[in-house]
Amino acid sequence: MCRAARMAGSRMKLELSRVVQGRGRLGVLKELGKTGQCSLEVPGCLLHTHLGTVPHLTQETLRTLSNLPSVTQVTLSNIAEHQEVLEEFKDGVTKFAGLHDTVLYCSLHDPATPCPTGYTTNKTVSVWGSGGRIELTVAKFMALQKTVQPDWYQSMADGETWLNNTSRKRVRKSVDRTLAHLDECLLVHQQSQELEGVEVFGVVEGGDILEERVRSSRETAKRPVAGFCLDGLQTGSMDQALRTQLITAVTKELPEDKPRLLQGVGRPDEVLACVEAGVDLFESFFPFQVTERGCALSFSFDISLDPELAVLELDEERGTSGETQQNGDLNPDDQSLMTSFEINLKDQRYKDDFRPLVEGCVCYCCQNHQRAYLHHLLVTNELLAGVLLMIHNTAHYHAFFSALREALANDKLDVLKTRVLGESGGRQKDLTDTDKSE
Amino acid sequence: LLSVKTESKALSPLALRVVAECPVTKARACDLTLPHCAVSTPVFMPVGTQGTLKGITVDQLEGLGCQICLGNTYHLGMRPGPDLIEKANGLHGFMNWKRNLLTDSGGFQMVSLVELSEVTEEGVKFKSPYDGKEILLSPEKSISIQNSLGSDIMMQLDDVVSSTVSGPRVEEAMHRSIRWLDRCIAANKNSDKQNLFAIIQGGLNAELRKVCLDEMTQRDVPGFAIGGLSGGEEKNDFWRMVTLSTDHLPREKPRYLMGVGYAVDLVVCVALGCDMFDCVFPTRTARFGSALVPWGSLQVKQKQYAKDFQPIDPECQCHTCKKHSRAYLHALFKSDTAAMHHITVHNIAYQLSLMRSVRRSIVEGCFPEFIRTFMKRLFPSRDLYPGWAVDALASVNVTLE
Description:
The complex is a heterodimer.
Chain A lengths: L1 H7 L4 E8 L3 E9 L5 E5 L1 E5 L10 H4 L8 E5 H4 L3 H7 L2 H5 L6 E5 L17 E5 L2 E5 L1 H11 L3 E3 L13 H23 L8 E6 L5 H13 L4 E4 L9 H14 L6 E3 L5 H10 L3 E3 L2 H7 L2 E3 L9 H13 L22 E3 L19 H5 L2 H9 L3 H27 L3 H9 L9 H7 L1
Chain B lengths: L1 H10 L3 E7 L6 E6 L4 E4 L1 E3 L12 H6 L4 E4 L1 H6 L3 H6 L2 H6 L4 E4 L3 H6 L3 E4 L4 E4 L6 E4 L1 H11 L3 E3 L12 H20 L7 E6 L5 H11 L6 E4 L8 H13 L7 E3 L5 H9 L4 E3 L2 H6 L3 E4 L2 E4 L19 H5 L2 H7 L5 H26 L3 H12 L8 H9 L6
Parallel strand pairs in B: 4-14, 5-6, 6-10, 10-11, 11-12, 12-13, 13-14
Antiparallel strand pairs in B: 1-2, 2-3, 7-8, 8-9, 15-16
Catalytic activity (chain B): guanosine(34) in tRNA + queuine = queuosine(34) in tRNA + guanine
Subcellular location (chain B): Cytoplasm; Mitochondrion outer membrane
InterPro entries (chain B): TGT, TGT-like_sf, tRNA_ribo_trans-like
C-alpha cells in the first residue's frame, strides 16, 4: 500500500485560496507535469483536442489565442487505433503531435461525441475510432497509457449510466466495475517504470442514485489517486438540480485537497452551478460543439458594465433570435441544439451585419472579420468558417472561465450569474422595445 | 511623346518592369506593380473561389508570401452577390485581404458548372442553381460585378468553348470574344483602379489564335491572358498554342496563362514566356491528403506513411513541415479537418517556393540549369520525362539530357 502511494500518489498540489461551502473553490493546481513546472488555475478547464490538435486549428492559427490552459486533453477514442504507431514512435503523444510545454491529460472518451451504449462488459469498455469499435481490457488500457505517456490520466471506467431509466442494478455494477478497474490500473501502474511520475485520477460513478454516488466517492477516495473524475453526469443526462445535489453529496466524501474534474459538462449555466457544488475542472469541448453548429458564443460575462446597459444588450441578442431557448437540458441526443449563449450565424439577419461576432472581443476572428463574412462562409460551406468560429469560441469560453475566477476572487459570483444567465433566464423581447432603445 | 507615355503609366493601375530576361528561353522575371502591392513574377496565384482560401486565414496566406490570389465572379456574384460585397468595401474588405485580387469573368463556370441555356451575342443565359431563375451574364454584367468586387485585375467575359471542341464554333467564339472584349472595356467604370485583361481565344487552331492575337493586341488593355487551354486537350497542342501566343503578345505587358498549376507545366510555360498562373489543383488536392513535393506528390493518407516520422519534405520551410511528421498528419486525417489545412499550407508554400526559385534562376541567368535540375528531381529517369515537355523546352533551346 505504501509503495503504491509513492508511485501513483499525488505530486500535483491543489492550493486553494478560497473555499465557500455551496459557492465553490478558487485556487491553483500546481506542480503539474513530469517536470512539475506547470500550473492550472481553478475553477478552470482543460484544452480539448483531437489527437493533440484543437479542432480545425493548426498551431499557427491556435497561436493567435493567448491564455490557453496549460493542460491539453487527448482521448483514447482518438488514440486507441494508433497504438501500433505510437509503440513504434516510442516518445508519446505530446511529441507525436508536435506539442511543447504542455501537460497532457488522457481521458477515455471524447466528451464531444457520445458513443453507442451496450458494449461494456465486466472486464472491458469500448471506444470508437475512425475504423469502428475498439475493445479495451485494463491490460490494453494500460498498454495504451504507456504509449501515450500522458502526465496524468483517468483510470478505466464504466460510465454507461446516463441513459434514462438505467436500473439500480446497472448503476451498482458500474460503480463496482469502475472500482475494480481502478484497482487493476493502479496495480499495473505501480509496476510500470514507464509510468513513473504519471498521475492517476479515480472515476466516481453512481448514475443518478445518491447512495451509489456516495459509495463510489467513499471507495474511490480510499485509493491513492491524485484527483477525481466525476462521470455519468454529462449534459443531457439529468437536470441541473439533480446534478448539483449529486455533486454536493459526492464532494462531501472527497478530500478537500484533491481536484475534482467533471466530465461531459460544458454549458456556461451548468458550469456555474457545478462550480458552486464543488467542481474544480471541466473539459472544454463546448466551444467545439458550438462551432460545429455554425454558431458563435456571444453571452456576456463582463460584470464591469453598467447594469442597465447590460440588460439592454442582453435582450437585444436574445429577444430577436426568434428561436426556442431550450438549452437541451434533458436530451442527450440533441446536444446539437443551439443554446441561449450563442448566435446562429447561418441566420439571414447576419447576411449584412458588418459588426464583429462580439463587440470588444480581441480574438483574431473579431479583430479581422465580420458577421456577414462568417454568414457567407457558413452558407457556402467553406472550411474557413470552422477555423474562425473555433478561434472565437475558444477565446470566448476561456475568457469566461477567467471572469469566473475573478468573480470568485472578488465575491461577485451572483453578479456574474445574473450577467451570464440573464435577469429572467433569457426571456423573449418585444420587438417594439428594440426600436425604442435605438 | 515620352512625357505623355510616362504620365499615362503613372495613372495606370498596372506597371510592368522586366527585371531579367533569360537569354536562352523566352522566360522573364518582372516586377508587376498593382494597386495593393507589388508582385514578383513569374507568379502562381492560389485560387480562393468563394472569397476564402479553403481553411487558410488571410494572415496565413500573407505569411506564406502570397501577393495575389483569385476570387470567382460567378460564385461570388451568386452568393453573397455584388451589392453586399460593395457594402463591405469590395472583396478586399469582405475577406479582409490587403494584397491583390484577380477575378475571372464567370465565363469558365458557364462551361464547367452550369446547365447551359444559351450563348447569344447578348451574353450567356443560364439557370441559377439556387433558385432556378434565369440569369443573363453579359459582358456588361460581368464587368459590373467585378467593379463591385473591386479586384485589381478583372478578366473580360469571353465566349468559352472547350478545348476539345473543333469546327466553326471555335471561330465563332473567338470573334465574339473580341467583340465582348470591346464591350467589357467600354463597361469598366473603374479603369483607374482596376485592370481589365483580355483573353486570347482560338482553341487549338493556330490561324484562329493568330487572328485573335492580332485583333486583341490592338486594344489598349494592361495585360493579356491565354485562354481556352488547360481543358483536357493534348499537351502537344497545348504548348504550341502557348508559345504561339507569347510570340505575339507585347513584351511590356504581363502574360497570364489561365488554369495551369502542375509543377512541370509551370516551369515549361515560364520558359515559353508566361508570367502569371492560377490553378485550383494544389489547394484542392491538399484536401485529399496529397502533398506536393519536388519529387512528385505524397499521398499522406496512404498506409505507408502511418509510421513515417519524417516531415513531408525535410527541406521545406513551411509550418507544417517544421512541426509535423507524415505519421502525425496521416493519423490526424482520421480525426480532424486541421489535417487538410496543414497540407493546404504546405502545398501553397510549395507552389510559391517553386516560383521564387524559378524567378531567382532567371535573374541569376541560370534558368536552363534550373530546368534540368528540376526535371531530374521530379522524374526518376530520362525516359519518364513527358514528351511534350521535352519538345516544348527544345523549342526554346533547352535540351534535357
